[in-house]
Specification:
It contains seven helices and twelve strands. It has about 325 residues and is an alpha+beta fold.
Length: about 325
């Protein structure tokens, strides 16, 4: 009995008399000076299992992603420029004091995609309808300005665009006699809030300052706020569209003065264009014959149905 007990303890105890675990017995011995052990574990922890520096890996991945980020930014800028908002620079003094030469405005290009058309009193940007800018100086942008304007981050200096205020829309009769006031459909406009101080609403000259026109379908009549310094619809009546601007050439409505920051502000429609009766004549003029016929036919159809129903009873 006693020999069995002694034999069970001898050669099977740990250093402090504890029984050895199977995994301890199977663990290989580590020789002094070996690369294995705690030193190797520390190296693995600091460099990762692959042995590469994680900082250099992160740096390399950033530089790989940078071109992708730039590409996405350019695509978004082009989408915004094409469909949403575009910046334009004011090239002249024709819209003083509403807009000064060198101002940057943001133009809403989204609503026209949904069928919205220019309304009286709005400030709009439009493509040159028939060589209105003939003889005007052309800017020479550098390469960087050309790229930035192409993606919409800077106003384009090469596009032949103008900015004016819409005075009349399709069906309107616009009239100027003497020095004014300017009349739309027989209603005098109070333009003191936006016409350049010291200017008269109408100009007394033989080049177009005195006129009476009816705006054609699909057209608008535009004038600058600096009346005595604006070559607008009045002075282009000899062109293909008789001074009017096709709605299809309108880029969009200028909604905000964005730069310089000291002149930041919105461009609302003046109250004079909201006066009662201003649009009655235009609305009647643009009503299509087909719609009138349809409205006239509705009562006749109802009468016939009632007669038929009474006969059946």
């Amino acid at each position: 009995m006693g020999d069995v007990a002694v034999g069970a303890r001898s050669g099977h105890e740990g250093p402090e008399g504890q029984p050895e675990r199977p995994e301890d017995a199977a663990a290989p011995a580590v020789e002094p000076g070996s690369d294995s052990g705690s030193g190797s574990a520390d190296a693995d922890a600091s460099t990762g299992r692959s042995g590469r520096d994680p900082k250099s890996t992160k740096q390399r991945s950033f530089w790989k992603e940078l071109p992708i980020l730039i590409g996405i930014a350019l695509v978004l800028a082009l989408i915004i420029k094409t469909f949403l908002v575009q910046a334009f620079s004011i090239p002249s003094d024709s819209m003083q004091n509403t807009l000064q030469q060198g101002d940057r405005v943001l133009v809403d290009k989204l609503t026209p995609w949904f069928g919205s058309e220019p309304e009286r009193g709005e400030v709009v940007v439009f493509h040159d309808p028939d060589n209105w800018l003939a003889g005007e100086p052309t800017a020479n942008p550098n390469a960087l300005q050309t790229v930035l304007s192409w993606i919409g981050l800077m106003p384009s200096s090469e596009e032949k665009d103008l900015i004016k205020r819409v005075i009349g829309v399709a069906g309107d009769t616009v009239e100027c006699k003497g020095t004014g006031p300017l009349k739309v459909n027989g209603k005098a406009l109070n333009e003191s809030s936006y016409v350049y101080p010291g200017n008269t609403p109408c100009s007394q000259d033989e080049d177009g300052g005195q006129f009476k026109v009816k705006v054609s379908e699909g057209m608008i009549w535009v004038m600058g706020d600096h009346r005595q310094n604006s070559r607008d619809s009045r002075y282009n009546q000899a062109d293909e569209h008789h001074g009017m601007v096709p709605v299809k050439d309108v880029v969009g409505r200028a909604i905000v003065k964005a730069w310089p920051i000291t002149r930041w502000g919105t461009l609302p429609v003046p109250d004079t264009f909201d006066q009662p009766g201003l649009g009655d004549q235009a609305a009647a003029a643009v009503t299509s014959p087909g719609s009138v016929a349809l409205l006239g036919a509705v009562p006749l159809v109802l009468v016939r149905r009632r007669r038929k129903a009474s006969k059946d009873d």
